[in-house]
Specification:
This protein is mainly alpha-helical. Helices cover about 55% and strands about 5% of the residues. It contains 15 helices and four strands. The chain has a four-stranded antiparallel β-sheet, with helices on one face. The N and C termini lie far apart (about 60 Å).
């Protein structure tokens, strides 16, 4: 990899082996693990492409559709190809940032830890979720910010400010949480006397311009839909009740379902009336998503044929569905 590899610590093979080994393991899991409700929902994004959506921006639709569009085949593995590649890229960016800030050894340990944390390993590195592109662009922003703000003792703003604005915009286009990244970088510059010079630089204007240009799909869609997505997300950000550990302990089901070892309920446990159609022969979503061929959105539900479906256990990898009355 030439001078770049030597300068950034890629001369040693262990990190390459760690990245490729992790990718192979996660790919095997992606082939084996049945699709979840959220993944089926995001697959519907690919069938109804738009500037944005009710609960998320468009990036998850693009990352979910990447594999099927590339291969021409829809399966639980192909819809996860985007997440598999994005998380590998995020780990590489995290490694480069750690080398820049600390050392090659610290960077290797950082990637090793990030590769073993279950919620990162599965949630961001296997399942197709908005968090996968968010993590990738968040990591890219941190790498550029480290090079921009920490490359020299006396700070002079550079073109990297514009790149940060662009990448933070892509993070917001992945998930609304990306705005926290932007606010954090602004706060850093405000609280560091030498880095306040960034606000006086023309590169900051370029950063703002690229940021708003990047998030324009979100603004266009919300403008066309009475700002429903922003109103919904802002309402979720403010709790409507206080947290009670006792109340959570009385309803442990959502947490027990987080485990991949949770028992897979049979169709009988779903208590479906006999005249209600099933999505699949054994009560589960088929791995090729054929059941969702004519699916469409109904508020928070998904309609398949004449049945409206709600998730029973959204974090149980095999998808269980229950049916409400015909609409």
């Amino acid at each position: 990899m030439g001078k770049f590899a030597k300068g950034w610590g890629f001369g040693a093979s262990p990190i390459i082996g760690l990245l490729l080994g992790g990718l192979l393991v996660r790919s095997a899991i992606a082939v084996w693990l049945p699709p979840g409700f959220d993944e089926a929902y995001y697959y519907l994004y690919t069938q109804h492409l738009d500037w944005s959506y009710f609960d998320h921006p468009l990036m998850v639709g693009l990352s979910t559709g990447f594999g099927p569009w590339l291969t021409g085949y829809v399966s639980q593995f192909t819809i996860r190809i985007g997440s598999l590649l994005l998380y590998t890229g995020a780990l590489m960016l995290l490694y480069l940032t750690s080398v820049r800030l600390f050392s090659q050894k610290a960077a290797f340990l950082t990637v090793a830890i990030a590769s073993l944390i279950p919620i990162f390993f599965i949630g961001f590195g296997v399942l197709t979720l908005p968090d996968s592109p968010l993590i990738f662009f968040w990591s890219a922003a941190l790498l550029i910010a480290a090079e921009e703000f920490l490359r020299q003792p006396n700070y002079n703003p550079s073109w990297r400010l514009a790149a940060i604005g662009l990448v933070v915009g892509f993070a917001c286009l992945s998930k609304y949480h990306g705005v926290v990244l932007g606010l954090g970088l602004v706060g850093f510059c405000l609280t560091s006397s030498q880095h306040r010079a960034a606000f006086k630089s023309p590169w900051m204007l370029a950063a703002l311009g690229l940021f708003f240009l990047t998030i324009s799909p979100i603004m266009i869609w919300n403008l066309q839909h009475d700002w429903v997505s922003l109103r919904y997300q802002s309402g979720r950000a403010i709790p409507n009740r206080s947290y009670s550990l006792l109340a959570e302990a009385q309803h442990p089901e959502p947490y027990t379902r987080l485990s991949p070892l949770a028992p897979r309920p049979s169709p009988n446990t779903l208590d479906l009336p006999a005249h209600y159609p099933e999505l699949h022969g054994d009560g589960w979503l088929s791995s090729d998503f054929a059941d969702l061929g004519n699916a469409r959105f109904l508020g928070n539900d998904v309609a398949v044929g004449r049945s409206r479906c709600k998730v029973v256990a959204p974090w149980s990898a095999p998808l269980a569905m229950e049916f409400s009355d015909n609409y």
